[in-house]
Design goal:
Blueprint: H1 2-9, H2 18-21, H3 25-37, E1 47-48, E2 57-58, H4 63-66, H5 93-98, H6 112-129
Antiparallel strand pairs: 1-2
Bound molecules: protoporphyrin IX containing FE.
């Protein structure tokens, strides 16, 4: 479905641009689901207080949200459609708001927009030119997470 959307919106004769993203809701939903399932920072950055307080430091774990069945139904399934309304074009705002791979609040990742831009341009460029397949008689990649 993502490659169909790439073919329909970008075609094969030019590289993707960020303007294309506005017309590619399914691709956006795939990238959101990739960031939910392949969260690169399971334990968020540690923070500490500057003044004496009863709380010394908080180590928040983003995975507790990204893999919470109360927030994302069947969290072990890779399902980009969870971010899209039934029309396949508009986004489910509550689901998108719960996607927090960049943290939240004052110290949220300052590189979020450049990271999201790179994800879109690199992944669509790859899938525009290549199909990624499991080899004949091969196994799909092992997605068992590694702790830490
Ligand atoms: C997919 C890629 C990335 C992910 C998932 C990510 C995620 C995060 C997370 C979870 C934090 C901690 C937020 C918190 O403390 O609550 C963070 C902080 C930060 N990130 Fe990223 N990041 C990404 C890419 C980038 C890039 C490309 C840059 C720079 C161009 C960047 C620069 C920073 C900086 C400077 C901070 C510290 C912000 C602060 O403490 O005020 N990140 N990032």
């Amino acid at each position: 479905r993502m490659q169909k959307e790439i073919d329909a919106v970008i075609g094969r004769d030019r590289p993707p641009t960020m303007l294309d993203k506005l017309s590619m809701p399914y691709t956006s939903a795939v990238l959101m689901e990739v960031q939910r399932k392949a969260n690169v920072i399971s334990f968020n950055t540690p923070h500490r207080t500057l003044q004496e307080t009863s709380i010394a430091a908080i180590l928040s774990q983003l995975t507790t949200v990204l893999d919470d069945p109360k927030v994302f139904t069947q969290p072990t399934c890779f399902n980009p459609d969870r971010f899209l309304d039934d029309d396949g074009k508009s986004f489910r705002r509550a689901q998108v708001a719960s996607l927090v791979p960049f943290g939240i609040g004052k110290r949220q990742c300052v590189g979020e927009s450049i990271a999201r831009m790179c994800l879109f341009l690199v992944v669509t460029s790859l899938l525009q030119r290549y199909s990624l397949l499991v080899p004949d008689n091969g196994e799909p990649p092992d997605l068992t997470p590694t702790y830490g």
